[in-house]
Amino acid sequence: MSRSQEISSLKRKRPEPQIQSQSPENVLLNLIKSKGDMGIWKGDMKRETNLPEPMVNKALKMLQGKKLIKEVVNIKSKGRKHYMAVEFEPSKELTGGAWYVEGNLDKEFIGVLKDACLRIIRKLKVTTPDVISEFIKKHRITTVECSTKQIKEILQSMVLDNEIIEVKSTGLGEFHSIPIGTTCYRSATGMGLGQGPKTGAMASIPCGVCPRISQCTPDGFISPKNCEYYAKWLDF
Question: Is 60 exposed, middle or buried (0-12, 13-18, 19+ CB in 10 A)?
């Protein structure tokens, strides 16, 4: 075979391109979908795809027009345009969860929950986040579902505002139905709203600072019955 024939044969064997490059719309759609419920900022789209801004803007407009993506609010950077595929719902990390509505802190909702928590605590004298959460659900105080974790966040903010105090159950007296060592909340008795004690909530009884509180049981080796510190506190 001559050299010219070999060159001709190589040309015939050269593979033809089978896959055309993706359109900017498809490139961006695939990228946005890959981010799931966290979505992606437009600036990161440009960086990850190397597409020029005019092309990104045009593609995003087309994808929104086809209802394939949506713009969402990121509470950590409200000034930045954030996009997500329509089949996903924004994560709580992105939206702020139940405390935010369209990127804004829902002060009215928080106020309703704080008022409800305070009323429940005053009614029950001393109680736990789990009990408060169940009470709110049972009596349908709010139509928005609230987890025990969210109730704990509300209670912690109320402690910081000196509206209530945090205590640990001793298993005795008003704590008889609550396991020893369980975190409880009670009203700042005798004080107006926001006028709670400035010192630690458990400073008045030894149980609050006892390192063995988790091992303390009514009839155990470590118990209030044989605790010399608790006995001194009762005598006082």
Answer: buried
Rounded to whole angstroms, how far apart are CA atoms 186 and 157? 14
Q: How far apart (Å, rounded) are the C-alpha atoms in residues 138 and 12?
A: 78
* Each residue's pLDDT tens digit, 115-146: 999 999 999 999 999 999 999 988 888 877 78
Q: Is 121 exposed, middle or buried (0-12, 13-18, 19+ CB in 10 A)?
A: buried
Q: What is the pLDDT of residues 164-207, one digit of tens each?
A: 999 999 888 888 889 999 999 998 765 443 333 444 444 445 56
Provide the angle, in degrees to the nearest 10, between the axes of the packed helices 148-160 and 129-138.
120
Cβ-proximal residues to 81 (8 Å cutoff; 6+ apart), any chain: 41, 42, 71
Question: Of 149, 167, 168, 171, whose CA–CA distance to 159 is shortest?
Answer: 167
Regarding pTM above 0.70, the answer is: no
Pairwise CA distance, residues 62 & 23, whole Å: 12
User: Which residues neighbour 195 within 8 Å (Cβ) at sequence distance 6 or greater?
Assistant: 162, 188
